[in-house]
Design brief:
five-stranded antiparallel beta sheet; 5 strands; 14% helix; globular
């Protein structure tokens, strides 16, 4: 667990192609252990004491119902980019113009 004063999220929004919009959310915690990566979206799988193991399963199901995908990004190779990153990729609305270059704005999580 990261102390509350040190919790940060990095959000990034981009268009990987003309037909999709992607949003990534990355924290700066310890990341996801290699042995857990393959099971994160399985119902009732949890790494937390008291967790139900339904949060990511529900998120993935909702994404799929919208024609989207939710994935855990590969483990960062740089120590400065530690943490877990999830990417939600949605179909873009017809006529969506490409986004401006990404701006990285850190957000604190209380």
């Amino acid at each position: 667990q990261v102390p509350p004063a040190e919790r940060q999220l990095a959000l990034r929004l981009w268009m990987p192609d003309a037909a999709h919009v992607a949003l990534s959310v990355r924290d700066h915690g310890p990341g996801v252990p290699p042995e857990a990566r393959a099971h994160l979206f399985e119902p009732f799988y949890t790494t937390r004491t008291g967790g139900l193991g339904l949060g990511l399963t529900l998120c993935e199901s909702l994404a799929q119902a919208m024609g989207a995908s939710l994935v855990l990004a590969p483990q960062p190779s740089s120590a400065s980019e530690r943490g877990a990153e999830f990417v939600l990729t949605l179909p873009a609305a017809p006529g969506t113009a490409p986004l401006q270059p990404a701006q990285h704005l850190p957000a604190s999580v209380p």
